């Protein structure tokens, strides 16, 4: 059916109005049955003649200058005392009005149930508990036979991770749906309209009167499912379907879908309640994930080799690897680790031969020029590694160590094969006359071999932190060795010490202070605050949507953003203030002799300044989220930074491109 001959579901009626919302151009064929206005009368009538003068005036007033109504309007037809809900939006040169009946649901009871479930969601301590609570709450509200949550992997295959099932439909928990069940058009539709209801997949569809009236109804909530979607739901044994999109930070995380074996209505208030629960659960899910990643990053940071003694007694790369290899392999779920520095190879665990490592490094130097990590979970089929002799290796993660502007070392992790068995609810390619979905015990399964576990984003971030600290430790060792052998060469010794100071105190990419140096400055300022009563403040900020910049434009453009931002901010600070790169896209500003008021003013000035930054390859503005913390008695460097970090993440959750002030306690 073309866009000029749209089909509609019968649980609601539809009117197509002119741009001024005064005259009716077309109506759905079920309008008479729903609100008592015949199709012939509805065509070319005034809106006020059908909806009443007060309601039509209110609709026009609220739509004036707007794309859609902020919320639905309710009204009652005097002829049959039917309560109805009206929702309107603009499409092209028309206004589309959707009308649904409102059944009595007991608002107080519904509100109480939703509030109780919101509290339970907020109290969930892990993802499994959170999602189980969500599906049970939704099934209680909608009474569907099966409520499931489907999570998308990086290839857009769906995995059922939580479910509440009554037994009328077979369970799907633990089974997968192939990516071709979720085409791009469907995912894009969920991005625009997160809620979708199919009350009865087998019900006859309604049409517009007059037939073929040229109006685009792809955004209509009442649009009928496409034939291929009807066929798909029939294969699942489903008559009624209700689904809500679950959005992650940057993309669609998954779907909550409710299925029934029989036709199943879902009243508008219930749909709104379910969407509220999904939004709350999504926020809680993102928070739990952020906390889990923070704990993991802290564990990696605790394993870092840089310490106060490393400058006094620097260790050789071989010593570093021997002492830390087991810890690193555990943290990164690897069975082998290799450190390549200055042409030397140091290995631990199960790794390729030195010859294979050398060839691998040569290829990395040519193919991987940016400062971010490189990884694969399929060594045998990855172009860069497919011809290398790497028996027993399926996954590889390579972290560049920026020893200098012209020299790089490499930290390499290797993973073994992870054989996985995927149970599919239906085969990805099923014959047209295939039977309905099988029971879980007979579900089609696939054994995936030749791949390792995937390298998670937080693991790649942690590996970069580890690489930065290793770079400094190795450089410190090199300089120490030079000092022992070049004591009589004063000129060479002076140049070496200058290099050591640069490496020890400055970030190689942005040329601002590195984490080690800014920590020294924070400690010194805290000592002054304790001894002399001086005030100081800390601003922790990072670039909003930096991962999206890297993914869209490449790491080279991401590096340009960091370098340009650092230059801009450093050039705007007072001589007594200091800027340091904390790690990744995070920076720290240490403001001396600053109370809370002055710190907030400075933070707002920096936020506004960054918004003026222009990078040629990026169209969208660059923004930052800033957390501000002022030193208080009892604060250490760790607690001061932690309070600023909490405030910064609060700024991100509150919409980004803003400043938040730290509280006294760390939550």
Key terms:
667 residues, alpha+beta, Beta-Lactamase, 4 domains, seven-stranded antiparallel sheet, six-stranded antiparallel sheet, 18 helices, 25 strands
Write the layout of secondary structure elements.
Elements: E1 7-8, E2 13-17, E3 24-28, H1 31-35, H2 39-42, H3 47-51, H4 53-63, E4 73-77, E5 82-91, E6 94-101, H5 107-123, H6 127-142, E7 146-152, E8 158-165, E9 176-177, H7 184-192, E10 195-198, E11 206-209, H8 227-235, E12 240-247, E13 252-260, H9 268-302, H10 317-331, E14 336-341, E15 344-349, H11 354-367, E16 374-376, E17 395-402, E18 408-415, E19 420-424, E20 444-448, H12 457-485, H13 490-505, H14 515-532, E21 536-543, H15 546-553, H16 555-572, E22 578-583, E23 586-592, H17 596-611, E24 624-630, H18 637-653, E25 659-661
> Please, what is the average pLDDT?
87
Question: What is the CATH class name of the largest domain?
Answer: Alpha Beta
Shape: globular
* Number of structurally distinct domains: 4
CATH architecture group name of the largest domain: 2-Layer Sandwich
Distance between the termini: 55 Å
What is the alpha-carbon Rg in Å? 31 Å
- List low-pLDDT spans: 306-311, 429-442
Structural class of the secondary elements?
alpha+beta
EC number: 2.7.7.65
Keywords: Chromophore, Coiled coil, Kinase, Photoreceptor protein, Receptor, Sensory transduction, Transferase
Protein name: diguanylate cyclase
Domain Phytochrome chromophore attachment site: 126-283
Describe the structure.
The protein is of the alpha+beta class and 667 residues long. The protein folds into four domains: 95 residues, PAS domain (Beta-Lactamase, 2-Layer Sandwich); 148 residues, Beta-Lactamase (2-Layer Sandwich); 143 residues, Beta-Lactamase; 153 residues, 2-Layer Sandwich (Alpha-Beta Plaits), CATH 3.30.70. The protein is built from 18 helices and 25 strands. It is globular, with a radius of gyration of 31 Å. About 3% of the residues have low confidence.
């Amino acid at each position: 059916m073309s866009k000029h001959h749209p089909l509609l579901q019968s649980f609601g009626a539809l009117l197509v109005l002119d741009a001024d919302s005064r005259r009716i151009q077309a109506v759905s064929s079920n309008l008479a049955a729903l609100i008592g206005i015949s199709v012939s009368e509805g065509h070319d009538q005034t809106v006020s003649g059908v909806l009443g003068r007060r309601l039509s005036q209110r609709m026009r007033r609220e739509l004036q200058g707007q794309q859609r109504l902020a919320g639905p309007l309710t009204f009652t037809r005097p002829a049959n005392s039917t309560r109805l809900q009206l929702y309107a939006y603009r499409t092209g040169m028309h206004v589309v009005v959707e009308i649904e009946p409102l059944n009595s649901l007991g608002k107080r009871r519904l509100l109480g149930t939703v509030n109780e479930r919101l509290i339970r969601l907020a109290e969930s301590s892990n993802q499994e508990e959170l999602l189980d609570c969500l599906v049970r709450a939704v099934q209680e509200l909608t009474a569907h036979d099966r409520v499931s949550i489907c999570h998308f992997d990086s290839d857009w295959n769906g995995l059922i991770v939580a479910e509440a099932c009554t037994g009328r439909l077979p369970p799907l928990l633990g089974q997968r749906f192939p990516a071709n069940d979720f085409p791009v058009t469907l995912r894009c539709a969920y991005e625009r309209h997160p809620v979708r209801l199919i009350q009865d997949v087998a019900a006859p569809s309604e049409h517009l009167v007059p037939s073929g009236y040229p109006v685009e109804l792809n955004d209509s909530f009442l649009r009928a499912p496409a034939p291929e979607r009807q066929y798909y739901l029939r294969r699942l044994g489903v008559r009624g379907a209700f689904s809500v999109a679950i959005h992650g930070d940057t993309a669609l995380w998954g779907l909550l879908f409710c299925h029934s074996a029989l036709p199943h209505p879902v009243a508008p208030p219930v749909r709104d309640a379910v969407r509220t629960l999904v939004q709350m659960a999504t926020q809680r899910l993102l928070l739990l994930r952020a906390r889990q990643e923070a704990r993991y990053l802290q564990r990696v940071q605790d394993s870092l080799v840089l310490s106060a003694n490393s400058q006094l007694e620097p260790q050789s790369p071989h010593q570093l690897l021997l002492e830390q290899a087991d810890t690193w392999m555990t943290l990164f779920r690897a069975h082998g680790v290799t450190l390549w520095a200055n042409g030397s190879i140091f290995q631990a665990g199960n790794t390729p031969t030195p010859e294979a490592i050398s060839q691998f490094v040569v290829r990395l130097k040519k193919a991987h020029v940016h400062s971010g990590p490189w990884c694969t979970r399929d060594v045998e089929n990855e172009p860069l590694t497919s011809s290398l002799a790497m028996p027993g290796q399926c996954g590889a993660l390579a972290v560049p160590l920026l020893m200098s502007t012209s020299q790089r070392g490499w930290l390499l992790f290797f993973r073994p094969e992870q054989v996985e068995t995927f149970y599919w609810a239906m085969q990805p390619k099923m014959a047209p006359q295939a039977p309905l979905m099988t029971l879980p015990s007979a579900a089609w399964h696939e054994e995936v071999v030749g791949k390792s576990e995937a390298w998670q984003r937080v693991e790649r971030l942690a590996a970069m932190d580890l690489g930065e600290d290793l770079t400094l430790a190795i450089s410190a060792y090199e300089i120490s060795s030079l000092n022992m052998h070049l004591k009589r060469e004063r000129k060479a010794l002076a140049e070496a010490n200058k290099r050591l100071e640069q490496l020890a105190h400055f970030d190689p990419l942005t040329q601002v202070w590195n984490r080690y140096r800014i920590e020294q400055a924070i400690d010194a300022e805290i000592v002054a605050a304790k001894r002399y009563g001086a005030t100081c403040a800390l601003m922790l900020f990072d670039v909003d949507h930096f991962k999206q910049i890297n993914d869209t434009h490449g790491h080279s453009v991401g590096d340009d953003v960091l370098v340009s931002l650092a230059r801009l901010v450093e050039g705007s600070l007072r001589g007594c203030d200091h800027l340091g790169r904390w790690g990744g896209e995070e920076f720290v500003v240490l403001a001396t002799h600053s109370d809370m008021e002055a710190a907030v003013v400075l933070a707002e000035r920096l936020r506004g300044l960054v918004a003026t930054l222009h990078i040629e390859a990026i169209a969208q503005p660059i923004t930052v989220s800033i957390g501000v913390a002022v030193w208080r008695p009892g604060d250490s460097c760790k607690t001061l930074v932690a309070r600023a970090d909490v405030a910064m993440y609060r700024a991100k959750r509150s919409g980004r491109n803003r400043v938040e002030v730290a509280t006294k306690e760390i939550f």
